[in-house]
Amino acid sequence: MNADIITDTTYPHSTVDGFEKGCTTGHCPAEVSCKTVFTRFNGDYAFRRQINAGMTPAEIVAAERKQAQEAADTDLRAKKAKGSQRSAETRDAARERHNAARRAKRAANLIPQKALIPRDKLAALLGEGLTDRQIGERLGFTRRQVAGARNTAKLPRNPDSNRRPAPATTGASS
Ligand SMILES: [Zn+2]
């Protein structure tokens, strides 16, 4: 092409007219070459519509880049959201494993251990109306040890008159 076309500052570069007047190669000095404008104007309805609406090719291309970037960002956000969803599932799985381990441990602790005080003996002493403290005194255990054994045996305590009455656990008023 004529070198004058490249250097001529009045040449209508970045236009269909520029292409038709001879700027047909990639040497066009415009940001969006005459060749590109011509090709797109004739093959891209949206591009043609925007040109006809008064936008410059550079504006159209810039808007397209922005749109592409926004689409990419949206895509990235969607992927990230998906990613965090996945890691949330992983966290849930980890929590579930942890809980399962705890349940197993708890179940293991529920395996009956040798009772400090045989259940029937404890039940008999309680049947006599003895308190945990009195049973402990009789058997040589602390009140706490008796209470523990009684709780394990799921036997009700006898009220200890030396202590403040415990709040009713078998809802008498409620
Ligand atoms: Zn040109």
Short précis:
This protein has helices at 3-7, 16-20, 34-43, 45-52, 57-109, 119-127, 132-139, 143-152. By secondary structure, the protein is mostly helical.
Describe this structure in words.
It is a single chain. The protein is mainly α. Among the domains are: 3-58, no CATH class; 114-164. The chain is built from 8 helices and no strands. α7 (132-139) packs across α8. The longest helix has 53 residues, at 57-109. The radius of gyration is 44 Å and the shape is rod-shaped. The termini are far apart. The chain binds zinc ion. Zinc ion is lined by residues 13, 18, 23, 28, 30, 33-34.
Percentage of residues assigned to helices: 55-70%
Give me the Rg, rounded. 44 Å
Q: Tell me which ligands are bound.
A: zinc ion
Strand content: under 5%
Q: Whole-Å distance between the termini?
A: 101 Å
Secondary structure: number of strands: 0
Mean pLDDT: 85
Q: How is the main sheet built? A: none
Q: What is the global morphology?
A: rod-shaped
Q: So how many helices? A: 8
Structural class: mainly alpha
Element-by-element helix/strand order: HHHHHHHH
Uncertain stretches: none
What is the topology?
Blueprint: H1 3-7, H2 16-20, H3 34-43, H4 45-52, H5 57-109, H6 119-127, H7 132-139, H8 143-152
Helix pairs in contact: 3-4, 7-8
The protein binds zinc ion.
